[in-house]
Amino acid sequence: MSWQLQDAKNRFSQLVKLAESKGPQIITVRGQESVVVISVKEYKKLITKKGSLVDFMRNSPMSDVDLDLERSKSKGRNVSL
Predict the structure, then answer these.
(1) Topology adopted by domain 2-54
(2) How far apart are CA 72 and CA 11, in angstroms?
(3) Most exposed of 5, 8, 52, 77 (fewest Cβ within 10 Å)?
């Protein structure tokens, strides 16, 4: 939902309750989106470290697949101009 700044100030309690129950609330200033009010639960999801790419690959169900990572020795293909 989107709120004009003045409405957000006047109905702050409602804005907070909606952020907790319905999700992020956008506040506009002079018609432009300016800030978002979110619940602590949503905020913690955003800031929680997700892990590195290496961790993701190690925990992948395909981590035990044997990949051939050797580079081809060929010079590539011939291209006629």
Answers:
(1) YefM-like fold (3.40.1620)
(2) 66
(3) 77
Domain map (residue ranges) of the chain: 2-54
Cβ distance 15 to 37 under 8 Å?
yes
pLDDT of amino acid 70: 83
Q: Which residue has the tokens 């952020």?
A: 19
**Helix, strand, coil in percent for the chain, rounding step 5:** 35, 15, 45
Q: What residue ranges in 1-81 does DSSP mark as E strands?
A: 2-4, 25-29, 32-37
Question: Which two tokens mark 39?
Answer: 């619940």
23: alpha, beta or left, given left = phi > 0 and alpha = psi -120 to 50?
A: left
